Queue: 2 jobs
Job 1
Amino acid sequence: MKNALITGITGQDGSYLAELLLSKGYKVYGLKRRTSLPNLENVQHIEKEIEWVFGDLTDPGSLIEAVLRSNPDEVYNLAAQSYVATSWDQPTLTGNITAIGVTHLLEAVRRVKPDARFYQASSSEMFGKVQEVPQRETTSFYPRSPYAVAKVYGHWITVNFRESYGMYACSGILFNHESPRRGVEFVTRKVTRAVARIKAGLQEQLAMGNLDAKRDWGFAGDYVDAMWRMLQQSKPEDYVVATGETHSVRELLEIAFHHVGLNYQDYVYVDPALIRPAEVDVLLGDATKVRKLGWKPRVSFPELVTMMVDADLASIQGRVLNVAAL
Ligand code: NAP
Ligand code: G4F
């Protein structure tokens, strides 16, 4: 049986990856921050199958302890301050977690279990003001937010540990991927949750930012399989993971509202406060390289959006029932 250590396991991707590795017979160790209240919603169905280790990417000693305890064959670093908009409000915190935190974890692996295979969650945000279309592994980075700058650091320190120490360390440059487990502030979930609430009469309007931004959106459950495949190869390399399609925020609104028989223009207004100081206008990935590992996206953009709306509708109905039962 292989051991895997996952940081960021309570987040969207961590929960899907934990499910995947458990289904493959791994013993899964999950790094978890101390929180004042439980935040295990995404992993409650597998909570008892996971070996929990407490730690924080900003605390090197706790990461050494986590690697010692888990004795991992594979380490997946998914933890980050991952919300781009917050990175302008908290740039130093974002750098400490999303950039320097990667070095803390790589150092812990290098000192304790240097033959462990290491995955770094790099991001298409690194392409920022894109230098070519579509973006591929060789496209230059031009980060447009403190988050993206931190991710560029995390990406290159991973390359550096691979080249300096011969570690099996690689990065997946993942384009946006979403699911019903997505945090509620990200644009897809913000929209699908609002659609469900408007349909249920719990909300009247929806304030949005830049409706013209375009993203290459896929399904998170598909993308964690690509992470695993990257760590099963004979040598470590970096890979772009994307669908190869791009859609605007406006298209997202159209599909989500239309799914419940509504017109988004009757409910949505643009709030200038939600426009970012610097924007990534369009992302579109070329996943040719990772497709050669047998990976491909399985959920289309309309399927993804309607899946998320349906999940939010079901969640609201469940909540109403629960309240009624009290
Ligand atoms: P997410 O839902 O925001 O999850 C982030 C995770 O990181 C949470 O488990 C969070 O724990 C944990 N975390 C935050 N700060 C930490 C710290 N100081 N120490 C330890 N853990 C910490 O993110 P996601 O969407 O699953 O994304 C996973 C990773 O992929 C992130 O690194 C993200 O930047 C990157 N990425 C995501 C996408 C995407 O479209 N989803 C695309 C490219 C790259 P709490 O639950 O305690 O907050
Ligand atoms: O959903 P978003 O907040 O995601 P963003 O900024 O693309 O970042 C996500 O994907 C990255 C991969 O490319 C990850 F690395 C990162 O961790 C995160 O998961 O915003 C998407 C787009 C942006 O252009 C934003 O300006 O939607 C636009 N947008 C328009 N109105 C909005 C809103 N975004 C949010 N969150 N809220 C709005 O009201």
Note: The pocket of G4F (ligand 2) is lined by residues 82, 84-85, 123-125, 175-176, 185-187, 190, 208-210, 213, 215, 249, 274, 276, 279-280, 283 (CB under 6 Å).
Job 2
Amino acid sequence: MKKFLALTMAMAMVLSLAACGGNSGSKSQSSAASAGSASSASASASASTSEPAGLKTIEEGKLIMSTNASFPPYEMTDDSGKIVGIDAEIAEAIANKLGLELVIDDMDFDAALLAAQQGKSDMVMAGVTVNEDRLLVMDFSDSYATGVQVVIVKEGSDVTMDNLGEKMIGAQRGTTGYIYASDTPENGGYGEDHVIAYDNGATAVQALKNGQVDCVIIDNAPAQEYVKANPGLTILEGEWVTEDYAIGMAKGNTALVEAVNGALAELTADGTVQAILDKYINAD
Ligand code: GLN
């Protein structure tokens, strides 16, 4: 715990990581008037209000969300290639409230952050943790969920929470897991030489299965999904740091932040957000 906590506190200057945002293979999905997503989400559609005055989005009438659809259950593709998950459904419900059509753009995680920062997307929803460095370069909505960093290992491996510094760690590029792990030992990390950055969670987990790394540090909810889908993997018992997930938007886009927060508050009050979380996390 000390390690991760010390790190969170000490992360004063690290955002250089976001610099490498190659926009590899961005794919768009638009879901105008989507019938039959979460029952709760479609229920909210009937209560939809029109676009608040003063609110401008990149493309009129649309709400463009950048994401990395390799982070189940927050965002993943279903069998038909559609992006689904907690973030997709909450975004759809917000778009309905605001009278906008949701468009989802899939790209690498660091690119998804950068897109919102640079106003190429209206918002990033990708299980994004609010931290001090990101607050310097983007604005965030109120938090809608929490996550914790965990360590995935192969069953029977000798990796423990205490010997991570002697192991090779895989993490997703640009994520808090990567930032914690690659920080210096003085700051509770293990140093860059001990961490390999992967494009996304799926490739990091594949590298663990192939023996290229000894463990993967990733958020708990996707960790559970990856372990479920890959026999032979398990999550280390340990002490975690809890993080708040929120929606990232371009710095200074106050009208959008207020509109999103207004929608989110209504969706929280009427139980929609919880219903979506329960649908993906608690129900099996
Ligand atoms: N919560 C982590 C972060 O914000 C990981 C998010 C992700 O990989 N999609 O850095």
Note: Residues 1-24, 33-48 have pLDDT under 50 and may be disordered.
